[in-house]
Every structure is written in C-alpha cells, then in structure tokens.
Amino acid sequence: MKNILVVGGAGYIGSHMVLTLLENGYNPITYDNLSEGHRESVLGGVFIKGDIADSKKLKEVFNSYDISAVMHFAAHCYVGESVKDPQKYYQNNVLNTFNLLKEMLNAKIDKFIFSSTCAVYGNPQYLPLTEEHVFNPINPYGNTKLTIERMLSDYDKAYNLRSIRPRYFNAAGADPLSRIGENHSPETHLIPNVINTALGINDVLEVFGDDYETPDGTCIRDYIHILDIAQAHLLALEKLLNGYGSDVFNLGNNKGYSVKEVIDMVEKLSGKSVNVKIVPRRAGDPPILVGSSEKAQNILGWKQKFFDLETIVKTALDWHIKLKEVKNEKN
After folding, report:
1. Residues 82/84/89/91 CA torsion (nearest 10 deg)
2. For residue 160, is it within any domain?
3. Over the stretch 42-80, which tens digit does the pLDDT of each residue have?
4. Which one of the listed residues 31, 89, 141, 212 is annotated catalytic?
5. Domain with 40 in it: what CATH number?
6. Counting C-beta atoms within 10 Å of the first and last residue's C-beta, which end of the chain has fewer, N or C?
7. pTM above 0.90, yes or no
C-alpha cells in the first residue's frame, strides 16, 4: 500500500479524496491544521494535525513515512475573502505551499498533485474553457493559484518535481452514503445555501442578479460532483506514479446549470419552497462559466459518474438533512 500525504485532507474536497484513496488500496496520511476541516470527516488512514507552514512538523512526517506522492488541498478558496484580505491568501496559498515544496525536495519526494482552479483564466474569451485559454485571473485567489502553477512549472524544469494540476470551478454534492459532505462555516457555495434555505436553516437565499443574458436571466455555472473530482485526482496520481510527466487538466462538464435550475431542483427533491431575494449583481460575475473535460477524458480516462444535476443535488440534500439532525441532537 503506497503512502499518499493528503494536506488539507480533513476539508470538503480533501476528505472525499481520502475516502477515494482508501477505497482504491492506498494508505492516505491526512495532514491538516483543522482551521477549516473536521477531524470526523477523515474516515481512515493516518491523521496528523499540522500546518504546512511548520517545516519541523513536515520533516518529521517525511522522515517517519515512505511517502510516494503529496496531494495538496490546503489552500484558502473564497474569492470574496481573497479580495478583502489578500495577505491571508498569499501567506497560505503561496508562501506555505512554497514551504511544503521545499520540504518535499529535501525529502526527495518528486510527485505532486495540486488542486487548482479555473479562476486562473479570469473572464472567459470562449466557452467551454480549455487548458489553452489565456491566464487572466481577476481576484487574489486566482492570482495565488496561478503563482503556484508557475512555480510548479519552474520546479519541474529545475528539480524534476513532476506535478499534475486539475483545474475546476464548483465542487458539489456529497458521498452518496452521507458519511461525509460539505460543512463550511460560513457557507458561500450556492447548492448548500439553497438547501439550507429549503431546510429552514437560512431565512432567505440572495440571488445576485436575474437579468443576465442567459435563458432564465440567472448565472450559469459548472458543477462537478465531489467524488468525480476525487476520481480525476486519483487518475492523475496514478499517471504520476506510472512515470507520466507534469500536466494540467480542466475538470468540466461542458455545460452548466443556472442558479434558477439549482433552486428548482432543490425544491423538487426537498418538497419545500426556497425563499429567494433578488439582489444586485456582484462585480466581475460573468453570465456563464463552464469548463471542458475533453483532455481529461482522453488522457486520464476520466468519466463522470455523477454528472446530472439531480444526482448532485440529491447527494448534497441527503447529507445536509443528516448534518442538521446531528446538530439538533447536539443542541
């Protein structure tokens, strides 16, 4: 069983990656400072509480385990917050990742999976977005991810540190067995906020504009099920382990769903109405953002299992109902 270090493995995406590794014969070693993750979301393997800024702790981990590869999910990822507090994002996303890579090189670990973002492209010049689209991030979050991607390209040339960087927009859904799911505080993602409004946890759902040039006037976005994202990362990992070089892959579904379509689906599956308030558009929100997955399909052999909106929302809804019940029991 190969040891795979998953930094940020107690978070939303990281915990589903740990689960996927467990189910595919790997030994995940979760390394997380629990600032945003949850210890109970790590369903197996080794857990180590630590920060990637802590060189001493990283050295201990690399000396204690024979690590085959590192997977990085420990970035801050809120666009709005990055605009208000860019220092926080450059510190963690760039400087702390630099520290992680430094300790990897010292330990002679040369395989790295970096969870990136389609935010590196900025406003789309064409759709669906392909890997060849120009880089023009429009917020500090996208800037920090692009900085790391460029760093990894340089490290490949200089140190032969091979990396694969999946880029995607909106991770969504939950484990179909409701063992783990999305649990942010505060929550900024659309699907959980629609669900929380339907469940009475939130009073109202704010929709930022309904006058876009789309069929129903609301923004269209790409939603990829969290386990499909984890599966793509697993395929990328196995490519690296088998000698494949550095590369990038967009994870998209070549189409998207509007805000209204998401609301309608939640209402259909929950049997409850969602109290909606239309508010002004947010600056910099393009009408449509969707990514291509053609390259990932052709090279990684990636095939989405949970590609339709109903399945994505159903797994999220089941999880949030369970999460509400657990919180009510604690109270």
Report:
1. 170
2. yes
3. 999 999 999 999 999 999 999 999 999 999 999 998 888
4. 141
5. 3.40.50.720
6. C
7. yes
